[in-house]
Amino acid sequence: MSVHSTAIVQPGAQIPASCAVGPYCTIGPNVVLGEGCELISHVVLDGHLTLGRNNRIFPFACLGIAPQDLKYAGEPTRCEVGDNNSIREYVTISRGTTGGGGVTRVGSGCLIMAYTHIGHDSSIGNGCILANSATLAGHVTVEDYAVVGALCPVHQFCVIGKYSYIGGGTTITQNVLPYSLTSIERNNHAYGLNKVGLERRGFTPAQLKELRAAYRLLQASKLNTTEALKAIREKIAAGEFGEHVVYLADFIAQSDRGVIK
Known about the structure:
There is one protein chain. With 261 residues, the chain is of the alpha/beta class. It has two domains: 141 residues, Hexapeptide repeat proteins (UDP N-Acetylglucosamine Acyltransferase, domain 1, 3 Solenoid); 63 residues, Udp N-acetylglucosamine O-acyltransferase, C-terminal domain (Udp N-acetylglucosamine O-acyltransferase, Domain 2). Helices cover 18% and strands 27% of the residues. It is built from four helices and 28 strands. A hairpin with a 5-residue loop joins β26 and β27. The chain starts with a strand and ends with a strand.
């Protein structure tokens, strides 16, 4: 195990021999690291924090720190991070609260860019990108392969649908439709399908055609959301739409906060 002489590792921390801990890092007694993790320098790991394999954490990132919640009274809540994540400079990831389920989760294969904040009890899926200074309040869910642009504040309890792309500087106060492009440049509206991102993830032309047709019903018809959802369900029942449109319809139906349309 490579631990720099200036690092402070509390007794009880579990650090495999394959990990590298750089200068001036501090690791609390309840931290568990997976194989092959690298802490470059000045990293703070605190609380009941578990990291998977091959995570690379850059200077001044703070993981597992106490939540920014006035109700928090030191309860032993948790933060769990998956494998193969790149967590850049000054990122803050708070542990959970008892009122929110007690755990903050980050999946695997994510790029979390500088100055991003992930609030307590949030859940980040796999393959997500959170660009510089993305700011997630507590209880936010970011589903698999979503991209949150730079300088985007996300209101608590919002859900960012999978494969969606949010343009930089967009304020999110409602749920973001899966597969969508959403941007402040379009008056904080979803303005189309994330075609390039979906193609990169292996979506077929037929699947893209189905999603495009569903989005036309949502956005380009004169139907309100309830009417559009009913029309989409009818086409699903007729076999015209497959699993991805089914997921889109279910996402809309379950969105208590409403969706950015």
